[in-house]
Design a protein that fits this description.
Distance between the termini of chain A: 12 Å
CATH topology of chain A: Rossmann fold
Distance between the termini of chain B: 33 Å
Radius of gyration of chain A: 13 Å
Largest sheet of chain A: 5 strands, parallel
Oligomer: heterodimer
CATH class of chain A: Alpha Beta
Strand content of chain A: 15-25%
Radius of gyration of chain B: 33 Å
Number of helices of chain B: 9
Number of strands of chain B: 12
Strand order of the largest sheet of chain B: 2-1-3-4-5
Order of helices and strands of chain A: EHEHEHHEHEH
Structural class of chain B: alpha/beta
Number of domains of chain B: 3
Largest interface: A-B, 26 and 30 residues
CATH architecture of chain A: 3-Layer(aba) Sandwich
Number of domains of chain A: 1
CATH superfamily of chain A: Response regulator
Number of helices of chain A: 6
CATH architecture of the largest domain in chain B: 2-Layer Sandwich
Shape of chain B: elongated
CATH superfamily of the largest domain in chain B: Histidine kinase-like ATPase, C-terminal domain
Shape of chain A: globular
CATH topology of the largest domain in chain B: Heat Shock Protein 90
Order of helices and strands of chain B: EHEHEHEHEHHEHEEHEEHEE
Structural class of chain A: alpha/beta
């Protein structure tokens, strides 16, 4: 079982991803949704859980984008970071974004929307 | 020609230098120097359109001189003056692109004059070409950015639709709550995408189109806005008031463009309301004084954080992650107002409200 943190300014995509999680049979997990990256950072600072947390981060967001979010996240202690499996989830298949994503050691994969329950299952099997 | 052509003449014979200067100093801005070295020193300090150089000089020949400055001073057009039949080296120099023209000695003034005029024309054409190329590469870069943002913003809603469809397809009972919810989301995403395409069309039209000036009655704009947003105001519980506070309501401008401005500002004011505010309002006031139309759109909505107020008119900028904006609206508004020769200003406080003030002169 895992926790989930979803960060996306598009509320529809938040709902789609949380439904996909629900349908994947992981429905006992807790899903935290954020429509802004700043709020998610605040949450992570105080969040404490025994379970690992899967985090899906959109890239193009107003005020703080996914890259800026990761810039801050990578500064957290290893003790905090190792509790998270981080993924970019974006509608952009842009090569520049993809290259930029490789700069972040905590990012496990670059996922393209739409998010599907099959994708989630295969991600969790790899962890 | 508004400016004199700047000519540099190089010859080791003093008599020729003075003869040249005497013949052309009224027509052109003439500088004369007796050697290649001094010519280079002159070029370091001054801009020159056309250089005329004698071939036979002690030290460097004219061709050697042209060859040596071509990297450092590529712009001046080079004319070689030669009294000798060293045609071979002249041909070579022309083929290397070091010399634009050559003139036989003894020269006559008419020949020199036509060579200078020709060279100057060539200079101006090259310069124009260079400007166009840099303009073009700038536009190309902008286009790259534009294509990136547009494809992202069009793909976004489509991916939402596909995600929702995916969940609908995996649902066992096609009538359950999840399915209905997803169908609702699909509709919302489709509307978002269609709005985006519409805005992109406005963007394109404004960049290309000519102004179509017509008479417009502000009362017509008032009625249009009322019927366009009336229903939404009822649904969202927002009080929309529209006033025309001058006796005169007739104005000359591009009506379609004015409509886009008014629609965008009112629709934004409605969109960025605070849900917990009890007396939500949007107030549009228009008046004409001294052939200038002022349009104020005031609301008590979310307002714009001071740090974003400068950026909200930029293309694809979004200051809010709670509300789905395309990042096109205010950019289009600003560009259109600029085309109409007007101005737009924002006065806003976060969580208090915003007032946009547009001023447009009558055409």
């Amino acid at each position: 079982m895992h926790n989930y943190i979803l960060i996306d300014d598009n509320k529809i995509d938040l709902l789609v991803a949380s439904k996909a999680i629900e349908l994947s049979g992981q429905n006992a997990s807790t899903v935290y949704q954020f429509s802004g990256a700043q709020a998610a950072l605040e949450f992570i600072k105080t969040f404490d859980s025994q379970m690992k947390t899967v985090m899906l981060i959109d890239i193009q967001m107003p005020t703080m984008n996914g890259f800026e979010f990761m810039d801050v996240f990578e500064q957290f202690s290893d003790e905090v970071k190792q509790k998270y499996y981080c993924y970019f989830l974006t509608s952009s298949s842009n090569d520049i974004d993809r290259l930029k994503a490789q700069k972040y050691p905590s990012i496990k994969q670059f996922l393209i929307k739409p998010f599907k329950s099959e994708t989630l299952v295969s991600l969790l099997n790899n962890n | 020609m508004d400016k004199k052509i700047k000519v540099l003449f190089i010859d080791d014979e003093e008599h020729n230098l003075h003869a040249f200067k005497a013949a052309f100093r009224f027509d052109y801005d003439v500088a004369i120097v007796p050697s290649a070295n001094e010519a280079e020193a002159y070029l370091e300090q001054n801009s020159v359109h056309v250089i005329l150089c004698d071939q036979r000089m002690p030290g460097k020949t004219g061709i050697e001189f042209f060859g040596s400055i071509i990297k450092k001073f590529p712009k001046p057009v080079r004319i070689l003056i030669t009294g000798y039949a060293d045609i071979e080296s002249v041909i070579k120099a022309i083929n290397l692109g070091h010399v634009y023209r050559y003139i036989n000695k003894p020269w006559n003034n008419i020949e020199i004059q036509s060579a200078i005029e020709d060279s100057y024309r060539y200079y101006m054409q090259s310069e124009e070409l260079e400007n166009k190329i840099s303009e073009l590469s700038r536009a190309y870069k902008e286009l790259d950015n534009f294509a990136y943002s547009v494809s992202h913003d069009m793909k976004g809603p489509l991916m939402s639709i596909m995600g929702a469809m995916n969940i609908v397809n995996t649902a066992e009972n096609k009538n359950d709550k999840t399915v209905l919810m997803m169908l609702n989301l699909i509709e919302k995403s489709s509307i978002q995408l269609s709005d985006f395409v519409e805005n992109m069309h406005v963007y394109y039209k404004n960049n290309r189109g000519q102004l179509k000036i017509d008479n417009v009655d502000l009362n017509v704009i008032k009625t249009e806005i009322d019927s366009l947003f009336g229903l939404k105001c009822l649904q969202d519980n927002v009080k929309l008031t529209i006033d025309i506070s001058s006796n005169n309501s007739l104005f000359r401008t591009d009506v379609t463009k004015l409509r886009v401005v008014a629609n965008n500002l009112v629709s934004n004011a409605l969109k960025y309301q605070r849900p917990d505010e009890k007396d939500k309002f949007v107030h549009l006031n228009m008046y004409i004084i001294n052939d200038t139309l002022t349009m104020e759109v005031k609301d008590n909505g979310m307002g714009v954080d001071e740090k974003y107020q400068k950026s909200i008119f930029e293309l694809f900028f979004r200051a809010n992650s709670e509300v789905n904006g395309s990042g096109f609206g205010l950019y289009n508004v600003k560009e259109i107002i600029a085309k109409l020769g007007g101005t737009i200003e924002l006065e806003s406080k976060l969580n208090i409200g915003s007032t946009f003030t547009v001023k447009i002169p009558s055409k």
